[in-house]
Amino acid sequence: MALKLMRDNLKHLKWVLWFVVIVFVLLVFVDWGSGRGQQGPSNVAVQVGDHVVTEQQFLREVRENEQRLRNLYGDQWEQFRSMVNIAEQTAQQIIQRELLMEEARKAGLVVSERELQDQILSYQAFRRKDGSFVGQDIYARILRANQTTPEQFEARLREDLLIQKLQNTVRQAVLLSDEEVEQEIRKRRETADLDVIVIPVRQFLGEVTAGDAEVQAYYEAHRDEFTRPEQRVIRYLVVETNTLRRLLPVNDAEIKSYYEDHIDEFKESEQAHARHILIRVVPGAGPDADAEAKVRAEQVAKLARSGVDFATLAEKHSEDPGSRSRGGDLGWFGRGSMVKEFEDAVFGAKPGDIVGPVKSQFGYHIIRVEGFRPARVKPLDEVKDEVRFRLLESRAAAEAERRAAELARAIERERPDTDEAWQKIADEDEAVASFVSPPFGADEVIPGIGQNPELRSAVFEARVGDIGGPVPISRGWMVWQLKEIRPAGVPPLDEIRDRVAAKVMGEKALAAAKAKGEELARRWREGAEAAELAREVGGTVSPVRAHRRGQPIPGVGPSAALDQLVFEAANGDVVGPVALDENTVAVAKVIALTTLSPEEVRSALASTRASLETERANEILGALLERRRKETVITVDQRLIERFTPNGKAG
Predict the structure, then answer these.
(1) Where in the sequence is the domain holding 290, given as residue range(s)?
(2) Residues 99-121, buried b or exposed e (16+ Cβ, 10 A)?
C-alpha cells in the first residue's frame, strides 16, 4: 500500500506508533463489517478529554496497525498474531497521540499550510518527474486506493507534524556536555572480561560484638540515620472470615438446594485427558532451528510409537517445565483450553493414540491421548466441597461484618484503653483476633493490614483513644483504636538500641570482609588459584564476560565502584577489594579489556550525542505524557476491546 509505506517512513512517529507486543494474550479477530450503524454519542470507542474517536475510526486504526505488523513480520505474522492484543494497543496509541497533541497545543505549537504542503510533496507518490504536484484528482485517487480521503490524510499528517515539532522542541532543550557524551560512548562500546570473587559480609558477623560505648558513640555520630517521620500505633480486633468458614454450619439440605438452583454452573463440556512431550521452538527462530526441533520431535515420536514408556520419554525429553516432572500429564481439559493445533489433534484422535509431532506457537508436541469424558453435569458428590465453600464464602463475609458491627458498639460502650482489655474482648469470640500494629508512617503500608489508604488517612486524623470501624480488610472486618502517636525526630537510644547495635556490628563485619579481601587479592596477584581462594569465603569464582559499565554482575548487581576499578586497570590486574554494598565485598581479576582511544571517542561524539538527545527528549516527553494523563479524563469502551480478546477478558 503506497500510503502505508509513506507513513512508515515518518521516523518521528515512534512516539505516535508505540506498539508493545503482549506475549501469551490471545487475540480473536472479528468481522470488520459488523459496525453498529451511524456514528453518534453512543458509538464512542475512546474519548480523551473532549476528543472523541468513534467505533468506525477505531476499527480503521486497528486494521492499519494489523497491516503494519503483517508487513513487518511477513510470513511469521500468523505466528506472532496470537501474541498481540491489537485492540488494546490501538486504544493506548490513540490516547498517547491525543495527549501529545494537547501538550503541543499547550506549548503554542502550530503547523502552517506551507509546512503541510511541503510534507505532502516530500512523498514521491504525489510528485511528477519534474517535482511538481500530481494534481488534486490523482492525489485523491491515490488516497482512495489506500482507503482514506484527502481530509483524513491531511488531518493525520498535521497531527504527526505537530508531534514532531513537540519532540524537536524538547530535544533542543536537552543540553549535554562532552564529558557526559564520552561517558556514554565508553559505557556502550567498552567491555571487560573478568573473574569475580564475592565475599559475604554476614560470614564475619559472628566474630564481632557491639559494646555499650560503641553503640552510644555510633548513635551520637549518626543521629540523622535514625530520624523517623511522625508515626501511629493502633490496636485492633479482626473478625476473620477464614475462621468463620470453619465455624459456621452448612447442612446437606442447603448444599443440595444451592446445587439444584445453580445446576448450569456445574455443567462440563467434553473433556480429554492427554500427555505430551514438547520440543520447544523459540518465537522468531530461523528455519534451521525449526527444522532441528522437528527432527528431534520425530525421533521422540518414533520411540513412543515403538512402545517406550511415554512418561519416561516426557521426563527425559520434554521442554515443558509444567508437565515434564509428571511424565507429561496435562490432566483433564475441555475445548478452548489449549492452542487450536493441539486441541484439534487431541479431539481428533482415539484413546491410546500417539499423535504428532504437532506444530504450535510453542514448538512441536508429541501427544498420547489417555481418554475422553463426555459432556455432563458434575454430580453433587463431586462438587459438594466446592458448593460448601461457595455458601460459606458469602455467609462468612456477611457474618464477619455483623459481628464487627457488634464489636464496634461494645467497644464504644466500654471504651477499653489497654492491650489486655482488647485481648479480653477477642477471647470471647473464637473468630476474633487481637493485634497491636508496629509503628507506621502516613505514607507506609500498615503492617499486618496491607495497603488501605482510607484507613491510614482516618488513623492519622484521629486522636489517641479514638475508635474507628468496622472497616473491611483482606482478612475480614476490623475495629481499631489509636493507641499512640510517635512524634517525628530521632527516637531515644533505648528505643532503637538493637538497630544501632546492628549498624555497629555491620560496620565491623564489613571491615573484616575488606581485610579478607585484601588478603585474597594479594594472594591472587601472587599466583594462587581463584577457585581455592573462593572456597575460603564459601563461594565460587564468577566468570563475567563482555561486561559493560552499569550492567549488573551476576550475584552482585551493578556496581559503579567496581566498574571504575576494572576499566582503569590493565589486563591481568587484580582489583579490589571493593564494597558493593553493606552486605558484600568483591575482588576481581581483569582477563581482557576492550577500550577506546581518544580518536575513537571523538569520532563517535556526534552520533552518540544525537542518540542521547533523542533518549533524553523521549524521557521528558514520557514525563509530560504521564502528567497530562493524570490531568485528563480518559474513557475507553472496554466492551469493544473485549471483542478482540479471548473469553471476553481484555488483556
Answers:
(1) 270-374
(2) bbbbbbeeeebebeeebeeebbe
Do the bridges between strand 329-334 and strand 271-280 make them parallel or antiparallel, or are there none, so unpaired? antiparallel
Phi, psi of 636, deg, nearest 5: -130, 135
Does residue 622 sit within a domain?
no
Residues of the chain with pLDDT under 70: 1-42, 78-82, 284, 643-651
In a domain, 625, yes or no: no
- Grid cell listed for 365: 508436541
Amino acid letter, 512: A
Q: What is the pLDDT of residue 538?
A: 85
Helices (H), 173-236: 178-189, 212-221
- 3-state SS, 446-459, equals ECCCECCHHHHHHH
Verify that 93 and 59 share a domain, yes or no: yes
Q: Please indicate, yes or no, whether residues 15 and 127 belong to a single structural domain of this protein.
A: yes
Residue at 78 is within a domain: yes
The CATH number given to whatever domain includes residue 325 is: 3.10.50.40
Contact 373, 226 (CB under 8 A): no
Are 37 and 137 members of one domain? yes
Indicate the number of domains in the chain: 4
E strands, 74-161, where? none
Within this chain, do residues 15 and 144 fall inside the same structural domain, yes or no? yes
Integer angstrom CA distances of residue 293 from 57, 60, 355, 608: 43, 39, 16, 41
The pLDDT of residue 393: 78
Is 141 in the same domain as 195? no
SS3 annotation, 377-388: ECCHHHHHHHHH
For the record, the C-alpha cell of 88 comes out as 488494546
Whether 474 contacts 451, CB under 8 Å: no
Q: Are residues 49 and 157 in the same domain?
A: yes
Element (H, E) at 464: none
The pLDDT assigned to 645 comes to 57
Domain shared by 220 and 245, yes or no: no
Calculate the dihedral angle through the C-alpha atoms of 610, 616, 619, 620, rounding to the nearest 10 degrees.
-110
Q: Rounded CA gap, 325 and 311, in Å?
A: 9
The cell numbers describing 222, all together, are 549518626
Residue 470 belongs to a domain with what CATH number?
3.10.50
Is the separation of the CB atoms in 229 and 488 below 8 Å? yes
Task: State how far the Cα of 239 lies from the Cα of 89, in Å rounded to an integer.
Answer: 43
